[in-house]
Amino acid sequence: MSEPLARLQRIFREVLDDPNLEISPGFSTADHSGWDSVATVQIVLAAEEEFSCRLPTEAVAGLKNVGDILKHLPGSVTKEHAESDAEGGSAKQRAETLLARARIKRDSNHAEEAFCDLRLAVQLHGDFNFLAQAARVLDGLAALGAIPANATPLKIAVLASSTTEFVVPLLKLACFRDGLWAQVYAAPFASYRQEILDPASALYRFAPNFIIVALSWRDAHLAEFSENPDEEVKRTIADFTGLMRTLSERSRSTVIMHNFDLPAFDSSGHLATADRRSRMRVLRAINSQLTEAAPQGMIVLDFDRVSSQFGKEAWESPELWHLAKQHPATGALPLLVDHYLALVRAAMGRAKKVLVFDLDNTLWGGVIGEDGISGIRVGPPSAEGEAHAALQHYALELKRRGVLLAVCSKNNDADARSPFRDHEGMVLKEDDFVAFVANWDDKPLNLRQIARQLNLGLESFVFLDDSPVERARVRRELPEVIVVELGPDPSGFVQALHRGLYFETVAFSQEDSSRHASYRANAVREEMKAGATSVDDFLRKLGMTVHHGRFSDHVFDRIVQLLGKTNQFNLTTRRHSAEAIRKFMRDSRVWTQHFRLIDCYGDNGIVGLVIARESGVAEWEIDTFLMSCRVIGRRLEDLMLSMTLKAARSAGCKRVRGLYSSTAKNLIVADFYPRLGFVEDASFKAEGEGRAYLYDLAGEPSWTVPFFTTEEVS
User: Domains (ranges, CATH) in the chain?
Assistant: First the structure.
């Protein structure tokens, strides 16, 4: 067998999922039931990647057998396989090596090692053809019954008006990359209306956590010019929000719906911008109103912005649309899937929280310990200096949105701090960071120290460092930390950081805007604690006041956010949707309470939530009890539980049941209920590995909370 045919055979085996398949030039579509039009596109794309060539459109359309592919392929390894490409070539080569190693480990039944190599590979390289190959390796591991350790199970449904065969494997792969293990239900082609409107459809039987409604400009069914553009906008908004409302009422899922991309090829040209009746103007008007009209529990993905980010002409492939009804082009799918996962992570409370910077050649050009203040390059007039300043501007905007900034640098502490104090080109200042570690210890060690200082898990960290050696070391020793792959040119740093969509959120609250100040104040509190004679002495000196009240529209966004993101001090980790929270607020049988903590150093914001509901005669069950990790150690949780028991007694209850569902992250609250006098209820079957505890309200609580002044708010 010739070398090109052998390489092509490997592609056929992966695409057709037939590891023993033997092909020849005469092997045709009639010889294998799996070789359909979708498989043809997958084979062609993989062959173009493998051989670094482009098959003519007419050849793809008329493809009948292997020989039709072979005659268009070069016969030897191309230069691309031997050299790095122009952008991030070394990262691509490492990714290809890791993928090859993952295949070998999969085939030798070393699944967990294969998962590790595969996850690193897909973090380093995001080309569609590469990811399609990686997805097939993941499918192979799943077929062996392997599941990565500590992966969170997730169910996602995709309702689309175009082919889903290409996006679903990438969606599963991206979930795996982000620590999720996804089951995906893809509805039949263009059947989204039937699936939503039929209460007995396979969609509702699947009971997904997330539903992606993947529409495009074609689904608006607009002529190039509308006779009545305002009515067209109203009709389209009413149609799709009505469908989404039905979906929200029948499912507890979080819905992610596309808005409408603008067609790349519009016959109206610049007239489309000038004439408000044009399809382009009407689509823009629909998009501007869609988010405002969206029902609770629905997130609008800005599909048109994603298409612009990718590039309009490359976004659409007429060839793939006519051949396989694929939209957008397969090359755009990795970016689109990254946006899906960014919103999924945000809704699940998995958005990253901390951005950690190296300093030399990252926040500025040069080495401060060698070049001195006058020798480093940041800000005008040099292009390099402006690029580093641009990264600082981007970081400052993230900080204003609630992202915490930190420094982890191999430097003398005084040298590391001097540019922030003395260089006029610096955008960031010392007090923009909640942690500043500059010494000569290993960076993984220092990152662990920062995590302990902030009381946050390393999985919430993103790390930026210009050194490939340091990046590799952090990836190896702290795989839970996201390490951004930076190229040699600082002008690409912002793009590299932005591309990961690590800090996406679905809401922006007052607590977000004040998060930095809150963490800075925590550092001052820790200094006070160190000087106090006892813990009780420290808590009294804080002068803590708690404002509490029922859930309301005024605090709604923060409640949704806390439910989605709190992991450590969270007794049940139930992720109630926005619509479910609205139902709780309307239900007289449900008691809800939020807690805002203020002390002598500032307002910590809303940091605690309780949801309790009637579960029987004279009995309440605590459905949700959570508190931000920022205020652990101040005994606010004791006050929250005391007030919950008091409210239950006032409602005529005799018992309160507390639930604890164990996770890898909430072990710190495993003894919370027993510590405060609850008795385990072995007769009650809790969810999963959970336990139930009962408290008899006949007596008063055995604990006191003397450190707080409380005030009820409406």
Answer: 3-82 (1.10.1200.10), 150-347 (3.40.50.1110), 354-499 (3.40.50.1000), 533-712 (3.40.630.30)
